[in-house]
Amino acid sequence: MDILIKAAKLIDGTGSRSTSDAFILIRNGKIIEIGSQNDLSENLTSGFGKFQIMDFPEGTILPGLIETHSHMHCTGNSEASERMLLDTEEILIMRAVNAMRVSLLSGVTTMRDLGSLNSVAFAIKNAIINNVIQGPRILVAGTPITTTAGHCYFFGTEVNSEKEILEAVRKQVKLGADCIKIMSTGGNFTPRSNPRRAQFSLRFLQEAVEDAHRLEVPVASHCHGTEGIINSVNAGVDNLIHCSWISSNPSEGYDYREDVVDEIADKGIFVDPTIALGHLRQIDDPEADVFQRGGVFYDLDSRYEMLRDMWSKGVKFISGLDAGMHMGEFGTHYNSVLVMIEKMGVSPIDAIKCVSKNSAECLGILPETGTVEKGKYADLIVLSDDFEKNPNSLKQVDTVINKGVVVKKNQIPLI
Ligand SMILES: [Zn+2]
Prior knowledge:
Blueprint lengths: L1 E9 L8 E9 L2 E7 L5 H5 L4 E13 L1 E6 L9 H7 L2 H17 L2 E6 L4 H12 L7 E4 L21 H14 L4 E4 L18 H13 L4 E7 H10 L3 E8 L11 H10 L2 E3 L2 H10 L5 H4 L6 H13 L3 E2 L16 H11 L3 H16 L16 E4 L15 E4 L2 E5 L2 E2 L2
Parallel strand pairs: 1-4, 5-6, 6-7, 8-9, 9-10, 10-11, 11-12
Antiparallel strand pairs: 1-2, 2-3, 4-13, 13-14, 14-15, 15-16
Helix pairs in contact: 3-4, 5-6, 6-7, 9-12, 12-13
């Protein structure tokens, strides 16, 4: 049945100003008309036969949220690492099934998984495509590529030579990966890997990126340390993850490089700053030392200052929670948006652009979703309040429409 949605406000995700008293018509999963309720005449609607009307006189329509960075079978709490190592594959799959449903009901209509077991990631993706389970549109990297004992080695792909890194890229593509995830530095999730230092030489990274691009698959590079960020930028990756600017020198904190930022902006490399996790961990345990809190987040105020500077230099930000990691609970991707607004001083309209249009562009799916525009899939969320005046209303998404199907209505899950 066709659906007619009316709301006090529409934010379309393109970065344009909001419009008032908007309506959207949906047919066969797609947006077929958008306009002002003043123009919504009998004539316009009479041709559509029976349609369901949903009216939100105080509400805001937004594009469905895009979570560009999750780990679908991880717990999202302090036991994430332990459970990942100890749980059976069956448990990991069941956890991922639940994570998909919870995420969708929270308003995430597209998700990119950036590191899970191949046996889980591709099964979940196929199960969603074939309607076996409910979940967002999903893109997956499968297992990230790392070094022996390197960051997230336990996901299963350890490489130590140029031959092996090429084999790993090709294997992921063969399995159906939508992108390649490379661990360019160590990370906090993996004790003994070193977040400050590069795991791969520039030459290794270049080989991998060149081969992935030959196969038309983008590369996302995990990098905390500045050494790994510079290697990634020079190797031509498409997407930087974390981008924490940590000095390779253990006695120093940050090593922020404005010249590299200019290059990131010029090349149009998307940056996922995973901004919410450090903030949430600090709230969770204000007394924790930096390593308990996540190691690399030495001084969050300085980090926000760097991110603001990157923003002012024109870097394109996307939105990743790192769902599955400690404090990255599935269903709380709204935190990525809210912390951007609160700590980076980004306007609500711009923060939504990051979680919708920019993220869709980074994932290569902008022609089909990511903004509220005629001809695109109806991936929409509706809040019961004015998002610009009350961004926290994003925490309780009222209604979720996934490819034209209403999966949550007035806070009630329909899946
Ligand atoms: Zn991650």
